[in-house]
Amino acid sequence: MIDSHLHLWTLDTFVTGGERPYPWLGPQHGALYRSFGEDEALETLKAAGVRGAVLVQADDTVADTDSMLAVAKRNPWVLGVVGWVRLDSPDECASQLDRLTAQPVFKGVRHLVHDDPRADFLDLPAVRESLALVAQRGLAFDVPDAFPRHLGSTVRLARELPELTLVLDHLGKPPRSDASLMDSWRTDFLALGRQPNTVAKLSGLHASGLPYTSEALRPLFDTALDAFGAERLMIGGDWPVSTLGAPYGRTLDVLLELVSALSPSEQDLILEGTAIRTYGLAANPLVDA
Questions:
Q1: Which among 9, 38, 73, 126 is least surrounded, fewest beta carbons within 10 Å?
Q2: pTM over 0.90, yes/no
């Protein structure tokens, strides 16, 4: 298995200007409010039998992306990096992409749309222009926590920029704790799946107060299969964020139980093949479990 979604952060590292990094993270997050580094990540992957991972940005800063790239240079288990560039400034985006794509491990771009105050962020002309540059360079674009504000605009983006490979993180964050919103999520989610340039991650599916079991998640899994098929789904542990809901091994075990009902070829796609194709990853084993 390749984990397509793993985070690292160091809270005592400050970005230019003295701003505190990861402003979304605070004492209210309990055990998550600390640094999570490469050594701990490697031991976690080894214990779960995961052979490599994609590092995904957790802060809309150059510093966060550069930190992940530095980790990748030291650790062959890092198969790819999904970092941040300034999408609302095409000129700055182009300059950043020129620098970042000089490192082959840089595979994609992400922006924390759910934390951005602009509800129309993905529809902004400047952002669309920048995402066209992302597509031209053969990079994927990850969209996190899209529901409810951004899932509809994600569908529009996929339709109107078909050359862009668009990755929906965490199945768009289905509102498991609010049954009244599930129909709305499902409508947009299925519409996104009808766009051939889209991929979705089976990740980040914990919901406060609700069970995290294969039985509880099966309706979501079946909907994801209907929308994307195994060839456009990939598995991700969302470590360490997911540890708020379950230990890393338990998080993966539930997802693996769902996937185990599929054919061997479908399992291979979800566990590795889709991630390898989507991000252009090396396919050789890099972590000895």
A1: 73
A2: yes
